[in-house]
């Protein structure tokens, strides 16, 4: 009787010997090579594409959320009065690093070339720098210019280009509020001077504009009131939990919203897209894995004599099944290993590969004038690599079971009868 340790060693040895032996049927060798190549391509594609999706998600998070505070405190009804007292109270609460007031509404901006709808936000420049990165996104002017010059405005670069204005020019803003005069009722409008431009290379460049808090209160007729307060917490990803605890102690007259409620749908859509793309590419790995079935079926037919000899020497049916499972997994392991190495290398150098392709073709694949990016971003996450490798091995294991079971059912007497 074979010892268990020896039995497991010889099963693995024979299975791997079948996988990499040179004395094989040429057609079976071609099929095995195609299976391994398909596995390499599938695993490489999966790791690379998932890394690029991670890169896109990171770019969007860094750009869009650079202008978005971690959370908001809003009154349940109407504007927020005596906001300074509430701001001081929030700053003293745990988990809040900075507080800034804001007013936000939709307006119509009229420049020298066209009219554009926009979102006009009134901010306190001194406090704004603590809750967002607007000052770092400025490409012209300074945030403090909003306070120094009454009725001034800062625009996104795309919005300014569409309106045909630049710093120093004037434009007209029309707000959703009516002015009653002896001649009738008219929309309230005001001429503002452009003092700055910002760029985050995202959609906000095309619709966002900023004025000072005093200018916004006059334009919207709010007096000393504001729409709410912006909050910044120590960590962006933990902000929802932090602000949920904060909201529980503020009472029903105040509402607390975090960035995941205002911008979360976009990032949930990106995550869903990543999952769907991953599943589609996993089908490539599945096809390669199930090509192993063809390889093992031909191998079983070729090794019928070996199987009969092993059975007469004391090998059990389970041993034969494990031999051919090891045979199939040995082929899959080579493909998965090479694909993993190629995927990691490609994902780590995708920007350099893109530039090489651009230089060879003489074209710009990602024109900054058209796209918000100039090169493919990629972020390699090791948990993605582990998931891809585990899923590939699981598919390969499933593919080996049926041919291995058929091999274990071969009766040695029938085979040896004709030898």
Automatic annotation (TrEMBL):
InterPro entries (UniProt xref): ABC3_permease_C, Lipoprotein-release_system, LolCE_TM, MacB_PCD
Domain of life of the native organism: Bacteria
Record's Gene Ontology CC terms? Answer: plasma membrane protein complex
Name the UniProt key words of this record, in alphabetical order: Cell membrane, Lipoprotein, Membrane, Transmembrane, Transmembrane helix, Transport
Per UniProt, subcellular location reads as: Cell membrane
Q: Where is the MacB-like periplasmic core domain?
A: 34-245
Transmembrane recorded as keyword: yes
One family name in Pfam for this protein: MacB_PCD
User: What membrane topology does this protein have?
Assistant: Multi-pass membrane protein
- Enumerate the transmembrane spans: 27-53, 275-301, 322-347, 380-402
Principal location: membrane
Q: ABC3 transporter permease C-terminal domain: which residues?
A: 280-412
Choose any GO biological process term that the UniProt entry carries and state it: lipoprotein transport
Family, similarity comment: Belongs to the ABC-4 integral membrane protein family. LolC/E subfamily.
Read off the NCBIfam families from this record: lolCE
Q: What is this protein called?
A: Lipoprotein-releasing ABC transporter permease subunit
UniProt organism field: Kineobactrum salinum
């Amino acid at each position: 009787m074979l010892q268990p340790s020896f039995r497991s060693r010889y099963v693995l040895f024979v299975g791997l010997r079948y996988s990499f032996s040179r004395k094989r049927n040429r057609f079976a060798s071609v099929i095995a090579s195609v299976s391994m190549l398909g596995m390499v391509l599938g695993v490489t594609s999966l790791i690379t594409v998932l890394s690029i999706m991670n890169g896109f998600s990171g770019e969007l998070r860094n750009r869009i959320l650079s202008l978005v505070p971690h959370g908001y405190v809003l009154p349940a009804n109407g504007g927020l009065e005596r906001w300074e007292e509430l701001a001081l109270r929030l700053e003293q609460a745990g988990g809040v690093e900075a507080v800034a007031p804001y007013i936000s509404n939709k307006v119509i901006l009229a420049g020298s070339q066209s009219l554009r709808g926009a979102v006009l936000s009134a901010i306190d420049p001194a406090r704004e720098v603590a809750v967002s990165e607007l000052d770092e996104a400025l490409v012209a002017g300074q945030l403090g210019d909003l306070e120094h010059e009454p009725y001034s405005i800062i625009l996104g670069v795309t919005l300014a280009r569409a309106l045909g204005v630049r710093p120093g020019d004037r434009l007209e803003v029309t707000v959703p509020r009516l002015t009653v005069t002896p001649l009738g009722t008219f929309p309230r409008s005001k001429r503002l001077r452009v003092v700055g431009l910002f760029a985050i290379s995202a959609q906000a460049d095309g619709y966002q504009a900023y004025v000072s808090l005093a200018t916004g209160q006059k334009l919207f007729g709010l007096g000393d009131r504001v729409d709410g307060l912006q909050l910044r917490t120590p960590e962006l990803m933990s902000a929802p939990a932090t602000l949920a605890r904060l909201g529980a102690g503020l009472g029903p007259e105040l509402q607390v919203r975090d960035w995941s409620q205002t911008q979360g749908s976009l990032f949930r859509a990106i995550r869903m897209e990543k999952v769907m793309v991953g599943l589609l590419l996993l089908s490539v790995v599945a096809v390669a894995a199930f090509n192993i079935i063809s390889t093992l079926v031909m191998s079983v037919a070729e090794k019928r004599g070996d199987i009969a000899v092993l059975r007469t020497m004391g090998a059990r049916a389970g041993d034969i099944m494990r031999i051919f499972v090891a045979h199939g997994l040995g082929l899959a392991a080579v493909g998965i290993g090479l694909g993993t190495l190629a995927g990691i290398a490609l994902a780590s150098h995708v920007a350099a590969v893109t530039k090489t392709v651009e230089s060879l073709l003489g074209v710009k694949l990602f024109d900054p004038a058209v796209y918000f990016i100039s090169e493919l971003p990629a972020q390699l996450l090791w948990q993605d690599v582990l998931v891809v490798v585990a899923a590939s091995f699981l598919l390969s294991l499933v593919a080996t079971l049926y041919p291995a079971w058929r091999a274990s059912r071969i009766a040695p007497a029938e085979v040896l009868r004709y030898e």
